[in-house]
Design goal:
The chain is mainly β. The chain contains one helix and four strands. It has one domain. The termini are far apart. Bound molecules: zinc ion.
């Protein structure tokens, strides 16, 4: 069995807000109980919105956590 993707990309869905963050899924969910990719209200953006999309990544596309999620 291959390793699950290590990174979680969270993108805010609030109108006019384009914040996103790359989080370490392994640290965040050490027991492996990960939320499914797609829409989620599990995280809160710096703008206060909780609607976001989740996507799992194997590689880091950008600098870490540029927008201060969590
Ligand atoms: Zn936001």
């Amino acid at each position: 069995m291959s390793e699950p993707p290590r990174l979680l990309l969270v993108r805010c869905l609030a109108p006019g807000c384009f914040h996103e963050a790359v989080l370490d899924a392994k640290t965040l969910f050490p027991d492996g109980d990960r939320p499914p990719p797609g829409r989620s209200e599990r995280f809160r953006c710096v703008c206060g919105a909780k609607r976001a999309t989740l996507e799992y990544l194997r590689r880091r596309p950008r600098p870490p956590n540029p927008c201060g999620w969590i």
